Amino acid sequence: MRDQIYYWKCDSPSSTDAKKRSYFKEKYDQAGLAEAVLAACRRLFGDAVLGADPLRVDGNHTAFRIRLPDRACFFRADDGSGDDDYMRAESALMARAAAQGLPVPKVLHTDVSRAFSPFRFQIMELCPDPPLDRHHKAGTLDQPGIARQLGRCLRQLHAISLEGFGFIDTDRLARDGTLRGLDTSYADYFFKRFEG
Which backbone phi and psi does 140 adopt, to 5 degrees? Predict the structure, then answer.
């Protein structure tokens, strides 16, 4: 649980070298990674899984496009190191955002157990449109239109009220489904990693 963390990428217990290995595209070159992704997906979808295509994106997760006969899904996994079950919280927060009418992909499955795969993972709906970055680089991004849409989304997102502050208490979430921040005040969260 992230009870002693203010910002995950800086405060995680992984070494700088381990972070570099898990954040950059070279992580996709690990032997057996694609096979492990396929095996995890087949536990959920069975033989309907036609393939898994690595998206080769930077960041602290590996991402694959999962091909099924009638659709494609997005597969997102961590590197399996450490003891971090936060995908559980991310999935619950996405469900809460969807309930508020926010346009988020539906999470189809979350597994933080590592009982059947070497990593924790989520499978969710695949957003059909190209990422905004692709439009930006091509010079086709409608910045004023996107800004208006993002403003509406942020207004809806900030209207969601949760008890507590900071990272979600994943132990409590697993126990009774309650979405609650670990800290009692914003100051408690904000000053968590400051030296006294």
Answer: -110, 10
Residue 33 lies in a domain: yes
Global confidence as pTM = 0.83
Render pLDDT for 132-141 as a digit per residue (tens, 0 to 9).
888 999 999 9
Which domain, by its residues, includes 48?
7-128
Contact 30, 78 (CB under 8 A): no
Question: Domains in the chain: how many in total?
Answer: 1
Q: Does any domain span residue 49?
A: yes
Angle at alpha carbon of residue 41, lines to 33 and 48, rounded to 5°: 125
Q: Is 24 among the domain residues?
A: yes
pLDDT of residue 91: 96
In this structure, of 30-34, 72-76, 117-121, 187-191, the range with the lowest mean pLDDT score is 30-34
Residue 41 sits in a domain whose CATH number is 3.30.200.20
